[in-house]
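In the design runs reported in the main text, the only information available to the sequence generator was the tokenized backbone. The following block is the verbatim input for one such run; it is reproduced so that readers can re-run the procedure and compare outputs position by position.
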């Protein structure tokens, strides 16, 4: 993939440079005509090639869930520790899996109302 992305980025950069130079030369002409279609097409092709090359060269996306990311990191560190012969008992990313979620105010309010009713009947 690196050869393809590097080639696309190089070709896109050459085309972009040529299109910009051609547009500059065209702007120096005494006529006030619009930019020729071939320069516009070359510019769009250069931008498209650069976008494809950059996307192909980019690394994989990381997971957005902390528990997935922490589990992946934990497994990688555990494998590295096993290779080195230094296996630890405690997982440093364990807290990501067992942490509390959001506080449910409505259920807490209902629990409190039930508690008050139970206290009033006694």
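Verbatim output:
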């Amino acid at each position: 993939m690196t050869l393809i992305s590097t080639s696309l980025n190089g070709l896109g950069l050459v085309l972009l440079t040529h299109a910009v130079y051609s547009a500059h030369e065209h702007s120096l002409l005494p006529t006030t005509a619009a930019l020729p279609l071939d320069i516009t097409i070359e510019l769009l092709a250069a931008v498209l090639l650069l976008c494809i090359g950059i996307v192909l060269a980019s690394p994989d996306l990381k997971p957005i869930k902390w528990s997935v990311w922490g589990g992946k990191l934990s497994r990688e560190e555990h494998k590295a520790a096993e290779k080195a012969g230094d296996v630890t008992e405690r997982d440093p990313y364990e807290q990501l899996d067992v942490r509390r979620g959001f506080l449910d105010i409505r259920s807490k309010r209902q629990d409190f109302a039930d508690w008050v009713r139970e206290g009033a009947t006694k």
